[in-house]
């Protein structure tokens, strides 16, 4: 079951979504991502542009891939999704832009061309919105998990929702080209953004109804790395959770010990920390848990591995995958905390031998956060790890200074 992270309003949904996208770009500068248009992601793009303004977001090798296009509208039409996404990405300067051409003379050939673009390399991230009828992109009701890029007819609901942008429903195109569910289900990570009271029923159905073509978004639910961010208005029809409005967030530090922990297998220390975080969440109201851990290859990071084993269904998970050491785990997690809004308490879950962790997280207090260390019980044979920690004391001041200097906070936080 996917539990959404409920935030106060659409602005905070956009802020946190931007921080997650920025985190993925910093972790993987060659990121390939599918990006949406529409009203829901506007705040996300604004926050990303603010990040990129000082040149600190490494987008030169990022590939930004569009999701869909109205049939009959080319890139030179300001109402086209290609033109809309180009406007949203001004200042971000991704190294590569790809989109469907709704005005292509041969739409079948255009669909095949774009599917080849998508299949050329793995896609790391798909950011998606949700339609009132449960569609994602233009995968309307009736879509199936094996669908690829194709031409589709638009439903009456979709046409009505698009009418304001076209000066009335009669002017809305009746057909579109869309990326299929098979592509989205194959991406490394999905970020679903849902805002506004008009999406409340669609979100309820997405999370609770049987998976199937009637509500296409339900078929995303079993993706191993699906994160749902919504505002309170969109969550109005979900079962209430006591921890949804908590001011308490937990951060679990992933651990991999060179020569002992396999590169892509979760370590015993990470599992011990997970168990400690589970106990914390079962005794205290925790809004969300941030799992941290980086990988320098294409395999799964410690954060992603821990997410696969996270057992507390009503505590949503946010991944931090850009921090290459504990100092950076702290500095890269702080924006993910602040973007949520209303967080006052942070529990850092690590190991008892992790002596430098308090120093790396001490700067959180300057942002009004009450930080507490929650150590996991030590495993056997950890004396050498204490020795490594002590050996790192000499350089930790410089390490923290560099990590905090590279940090960029969410806009208006």
Features:
seven-stranded parallel beta sheet, five-stranded parallel beta sheet, alpha/beta
What does this structure look like?
It is a single chain. By secondary structure, the protein is an alpha/beta fold. It contains 13 helices and 15 strands. The strands form three sheets. A seven-stranded parallel sheet has the order 1-10-9-6-2-3-5, sandwiched between helices. It has a five-stranded parallel sheet with strand order 13-12-11-14-15. A three-stranded antiparallel sheet has the order 4-8-7, with helices on one face. The longest helix has 18 residues. It is globular. The two termini are 31 Å apart.
The backbone outline, from C-alpha atoms, is globular
Strand order of the largest sheet: 1-10-9-6-2-3-5
Q: What is the ordering of alpha helices and beta strands?
A: EHEHEEHEHEEHEHEHEEHEHEHEHEHH
Average predicted local confidence, pLDDT: 94
Estimate the strand proportion.
Answer: 15-25%
Uncertain parts: none
Number of strands: 15
Distance between the termini: 31 Å
SS content category: alpha/beta
Helix content: 25-40%
């Amino acid at each position: 079951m996917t539990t959404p992270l409920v935030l106060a309003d659409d602005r905070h949904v956009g802020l946190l979504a931007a921080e997650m996208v920025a985190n993925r770009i910093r972790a993987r500068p060659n990121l390939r991502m599918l990006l949406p248009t529409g009203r829901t992601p506007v705040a996300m793009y604004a926050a990303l542009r603010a990040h990129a303004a000082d040149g600190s977001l490494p987008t030169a090798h990022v590939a930004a891939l569009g999701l869909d296009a109205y049939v009959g509208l080319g890139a030179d039409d300001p109402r086209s999704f290609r033109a809309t996404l180009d406007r949203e990405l001004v200042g971000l300067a991704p190294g590569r832009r790809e989109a469907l051409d709704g005005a292509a003379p041969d739409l079948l050939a255009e669909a095949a061309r774009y599917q080849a673009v998508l299949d050329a390399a793995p896609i790391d991230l798909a950011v998606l919105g949700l339609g009132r009828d449960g569609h994602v992109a233009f995968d309307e009701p009736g879509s199936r998990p094996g669908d690829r890029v194709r031409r589709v007819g638009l439903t009456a609901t979709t046409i009505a929702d698009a009418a304001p942008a076209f000066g009335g429903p009669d002017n809305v195109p009746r057909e579109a080209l869309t990326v299929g569910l098979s592509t989205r289900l194959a991406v490394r990570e999905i970020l679903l953004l849902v805002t506004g009271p008009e999406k409340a029923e669609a979100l309820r159905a997405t999370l609770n109804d049987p998976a199937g073509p009637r509500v296409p978004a339900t078929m995303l639910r079993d993706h191993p790395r699906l994160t749902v961010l919504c505002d309170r208005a969109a969550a109005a029809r979900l079962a209430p959770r006591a921890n949804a409005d908590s001011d308490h967030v937990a951060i679990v530090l992933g651990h991999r010990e060179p020569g002992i922990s396999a590169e892509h297998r979760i370590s015993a220390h990470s599992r011990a920390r997970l168990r400690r975080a589970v106990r914390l969440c079962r005794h205290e109201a925790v809004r969300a848990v941030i799992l941290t851990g980086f990988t320098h290859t294409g395999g799964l990071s410690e954060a992603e591995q821990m997410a696969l084993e996270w057992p507390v269904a009503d505590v949503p998970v946010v991944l931090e995958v850009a921090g290459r050491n504990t100092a950076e785990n702290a500095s890269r997690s702080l924006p993910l905390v602040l973007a949520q809004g209303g967080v006052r308490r942070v529990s850092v879950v690590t190991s008892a031998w992790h002596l430098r962790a308090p120093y790396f997280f001490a700067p959180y207090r300057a942002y009004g956060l009450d930080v507490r260390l929650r150590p996991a019980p030590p495993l056997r044979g950890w004396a050498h790890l204490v020795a490594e920690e002590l050996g790192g004391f000499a350089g930790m001041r410089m390490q923290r200074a560099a990590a905090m200097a590279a940090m960029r906070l969410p806009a208006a936080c």
